Amino acid sequence: MNVVSKVLPFRVNTHVTTHLIDWDSAPDDPLFRLVFPHRDMLSPQNFARIEKLVMKGASQAEIVAAAQAVRAQLNPHPSGQREKNVPELDGTPAEGFQHKYRETVLYFPARGQTCHAYCTFCFRWAQFVGDTAMKFASKEAEALQRYLRAHPEVTDVLLTGGDPMIMGSHHMAAQIEPLLRPEFDHVRSIRIGTKSLSFWPQRFVTDADADDLLRLIEKATGAGRNLAVMAHINHWREIANPIARTAIRRLRDAGAVIYSQGPLLAGINDDPNIWARNWTEQVQMGIHPYYMFIERDTGPRRFFEVPLHRALDIYRAATQQVSGLARSARGPVMSADPGKVEVIQTEDREGRTRYLLQFLQARDPAQVRRPFWAEGNQDACWFSELSPVLEPSPQTNLRPVNGATILQPGKNQ
User: Fold this and answer.
1) Which CATH number describes the domain made up of 88-326?
2) pLDDT at 150 over 90
3) Which among 128, 205, 247, 380 could disulfide-bond with 376, CB atoms 3.0 to 4.6 Å apart, if both were Cys?
4) d(CA 153, CA 155)
5) pLDDT, tens digit, 9 for 90 and up, residues 31-74
6) Would you say 97 and 87 are in contact if contact means Cβ atoms under 8 Å apart?
7) Are β-strands 396-401 and 287-294 bridged in parallel, bridged antiparallel, or unpaired?
8) Per-residue pLDDT tens for 342-392?
9) What pLDDT digit, counting tens, does each position of 312-345 carry?
């Protein structure tokens, strides 16, 4: 843990250690693995490099320099987050913003760029390693308002991090209340991405300003906005404790709509029975299952990744066990460079595997819901490992887009 935490962020709190982890099963307990480092999260070469420095008592500067070199190999900003997602504000790159999809803006308030505890798989790990050059954050709440005035096509604002729910309620109000003014009526939904329901449900129940936060949600919904809590839930045990259930009830009573999402992770939830129970119990508590993601191509992804064909099998087996309300979860989905790519079907052909895919969301909205074929090895785990399949027919036209092939309707279709 000491070696790996020099490279990847590590933080845990008393709620996780007291209420979530089964210590009799550690280190194989899925909730232990969710937060505690493991040596295989680094390659053997990189682990040995950092271990050598730690064992010989190297200076902090030496260790930091080596850790930064290792981080640079781990694709800290996947899917074009820095190169393609950062928009301009007042003629310069907008600090603390991402705008990948036309209708939705991601905003990173500076006070929300940490978490109550850190997930070992988190694709935003670069936010938490103490390197400001790698961090998305905005200290200026008014910047979001200026951006929205210039972009009336935006209907959804997602406060993200980190975890915005780590902010005090008065800081959260400074972000949300201005968006309730009539000039921002085009903003119909305010989303808040959070792990707090799992890692610190006290935020909504016993924290000193918990009631203030709930009144803020009531104010937003009373102003006609949809206030959506995007809860990150990876295993049903995360919300099986009484205080988490109370937090969920209080959020719903305040008018929030709760959605759940999370990636499929080897050693944590790569079992259809876990997902079926996860979704079924969420629906019972009033949570809407939203996405089953594929682990992104960043950080310790090799430790957690599951081949796409197996991910599809797990998703199908899970959905076959649940009611229609729990089948609202879309998956398995890759948040790749060109958009959110759903795996629909796989088929093996002469040592290669074909993957039928479609965009659920895309940089180019015209590509949404247009199925297309790609090809790769049977153990492919990510979009970039696939290649176009060009098989034109009288019924369809195919053209490559961002490393895949988009199926376009032919004139006879």
Assistant:
1) 3.20.20.70
2) yes
3) 380
4) 6
5) 999 999 999 999 999 999 999 999 999 999 999 999 999 999 99
6) yes
7) unpaired
8) 999 999 987 789 999 999 999 999 999 999 999 999 999 999 999 988 654
9) 999 999 999 999 999 999 999 999 999 999 999 9
Instruction: Count CB atoms within 10 A of the CB of residue 311.
Output: 25
Which amino acid, residue 396? T
Q: For 68-187, where are the E strands, in sequence order?
A: 88-89, 92-93, 97-101, 104-107, 156-159
Task: Give the Cα separation of 212 and 218 in Å (integer).
Answer: 10
Give the model's pLDDT for residue 399.
43
CATH 3.20.20.70 domain range(s) in the chain: 88-326
State the amino acid at position 367 in one-letter form: Q
Percent of the chain beyond pLDDT 70? 93
- Dihedral, CA atoms, 76, 78, 84, 90, nearest 10 degrees? -40
Q: Write the single-letter amino acid at 226.
A: N
User: pLDDT value at position 237?
Assistant: 98
User: Rounded CA gap, 131 and 155, in Å?
Assistant: 32
